[in-house]
Amino acid sequence: MTVDTELSKYYASRSYWLESSGDNLSQRPSLKEEIIVDVAILGAGFTGLWTAYYLIQQNPSLKIAIIEKHIAGYGASGRNAGWCSPKFSVTPDIALERYGTEITKELQLTMYNSVNEVERVITEENMAVDWKKAGFLKVSLEEHLLFQFENEMNTYRKLNLEENYQLLNKDLTDERIRVNGQKGSILTKVAAVLHPGKLVRQLARNIEKRGVKIYEQTEVIDIKEGEAVKSPKLIIKGGSVTAKVAVIIAGEAYLSQMEKFRRQIIPMYSSMILTEPLSEEQWASIGWENREAVGSNTLAQDYLQRTADRRILFGLGNGTPYRYASKISDSFDTSEHIIEWLMQRIKKWFPSISNVQFTHAWGGPIGVTSDWTPNFQFDKRTKVAKAFGYFGQGVSTSNLAGRILSDLINDKNTILTELPMVRHSSSKWVPEPFRWIGARFVQSEINRLDKRSELLGISPKGNTLAERIIRH
Questions:
Q1: Using CA atoms, how far apart are residues 196 and 77, in angstroms rounded to an integer?
Q2: Were 79 and a residue from 129, 228, 301, 364 both cysteine, which residue would form a disulfide, CB within 3.0 to 4.6 Å?
Q3: DSSP 117-167
Q4: What is the DSSP letter of 217?
Q5: Is 0.85 topped by the overall pTM?
Q6: What confidence score (pLDDT) does residue 2 get?
Q7: Tens digit of pLDDT per residue, the chain (472 long)?
């Protein structure tokens, strides 16, 4: 590897996770020639790395090349909240409507197993990633929103999965974390927090030791699908990567920048801030000793992590506005307005740390499909596999994607390959300018409904146009 100091500084500035990953973010060599491999993967984020991990485990002789425009973990894999959650992008209520009880239950069990599988690999591969499996607390700061938790429990009872959850009143919630004005919470027992920057960088090094080649600073400009007598290939500037077995497309939100995927997935932004390390006295006022993942039950969800180095990460799912034609830019990652809102929000949650200093702010795009459902595909004819559209639930779902794609490519029929998002193709997003108009309208309405709920004590009913559009 080579170290371009300025480039390394740039990548470290993308998130606290990358900055503190324990890696100097040196750049792997680029590719500028034509090569032939067994498997070619676009994207060195969690999906591409996990897929390579499982493929090379099943067949150590495979020649695998991963092509990355920036560095491993540059995108959402190195910028997320650091949750490994059993949440799926489609809620159990909607899944019940779409798939029925049996399939919905199997899907949810699969998501629990995905969290446990990530933990298994971390332990087995001796990765130091600040992993803590203490559950996920969804907290309500409003009395009139508590009914949502009972509704959730009723859904889990229908699925016979209620033992994985627990309703907590105000006092029981305070025993775990003291949030100003909280009225109660629901605990998801199988969930964890981690340092995603450490995981993505260590996972990349792990598969390299097994023979996988990762080429960085290499942009894929086109994808050529295979046919019965031809192999698929990734076209890069100055060369190509031909794959005898499969090409895997794992670019998540960044796929929206390629013409072939322009209407398959759109980038929506999530933003977060990070405090300085808190003192013993400050932590004593908050509690939160178990480092549970924490979030809110508002439409634009707040999400929090207590980091292993004693900081608080506070984020907002409805970050900077959608940009026309799905444009992505560093300047969109966050904004002064969003940062200020987050700073005020965290002080509302924890008034005892109102004088805390903030050291980092970052964000980035997440991939969203038109029906909020991931697409996991492998076309045996063209030999092209795809996985994208995690809607912010990528740490666990990307591991599942890696296992599913490896099964599909190896022509294995398993429980995983029968899940409803496998071989699923979401309908295209509407063309511009309607996509921009719709996305901006929904983002604005979500904020308005949350403000109305907080000020008037009136819970969103789910019957507005915006709520129907985002129903998932």
A1: 7
A2: 364
A3: HHHHHHHHTT--S--B---EEEEESSGGGTHHHHHHHHHHHHTT-GGGEEE
A4: S
A5: yes
A6: 67
A7: 666 889 999 999 999 999 999 999 999 999 999 999 999 999 999 999 999 999 999 999 999 999 999 999 999 999 999 999 999 999 999 999 999 999 999 999 999 999 999 999 999 999 999 999 999 999 999 999 999 999 999 999 999 999 999 999 999 999 999 999 999 999 999 999 999 999 999 999 999 999 999 999 999 999 999 886 789 999 999 999 999 999 999 999 999 999 999 999 999 999 999 999 999 999 999 999 999 999 999 877 899 999 999 999 999 987 789 999 999 999 999 999 999 999 999 999 999 999 999 999 999 999 999 999 999 999 999 999 999 999 989 999 999 999 999 999 999 999 999 999 999 999 999 999 999 998 898 888 877 877 777 777 777 767 677 566 777 6
What is the per-residue DSSP string for 347-392? HHH-GGGTT--EEEEEEEEEEE-TTS--EEEEETTTTEEEEE--TT
The secondary structure of 292-312 as a DSSP string is -EEEE-SSS-EEEEE-TTS-E
Phi, then psi, of 139 in degrees rounded to 5: -105, 145
Q: What are phi and psi of 365, to 5 degrees?
A: -85, 145
Q: How many angstroms separate the Cα of 70 from the Cα of each of 8, 75, 105, 219, 425?
A: 11, 9, 38, 8, 28
Query: What does the alpha-carbon distance between residue 466 and residue 446 come to, in Å, rounded to a whole number?
Result: 7
CATH number of 106-193+266-363: 3.30.9.10, 2.60.120.10, 3.20.10.10, 3.90.180.10? 3.30.9.10
Q: What is the DSSP letter of 35?
A: E
Pairing of strands 64-67, 213-215: parallel
Distance CA 385, CA 369 (A): 17
* Amino acid making up residue 434: F
Positive or negative, the CA dihedral 383, 32, 21, 205 is positive
Taking the mean position of all CA atoms in its chain, how far away is CA 285?
Answer: 31
DSSP 263: T
* Structure-block tokens of residue 345: 């929000």
**320 DSSP assignment:** S
Is there a contact between 178 and 285 (Cβ–Cβ < 8 Å)?
yes
322-338 burial code (b ≥16 CB/10 A, e <16):
bbeebebeeebbbbeeb
User: Are the C-beta atoms of 158 and 141 separated by less than 8 Å?
Assistant: no
CATH class, 5-80+197-264+371-418 region: alpha beta
DSSP SS3 for 64: strand
Give the pair of three-digit tokens for residue 142: 């409003």
Give dist(CA 80, CA 393) in Å, integer: 9
Phi, psi at 297, each rounded to 5°: -110, 25
CB 369 within 8 A of CB 265: yes
Domain residue ranges in the chain: 5-80+197-264+371-418, 106-193+266-363, 438-469
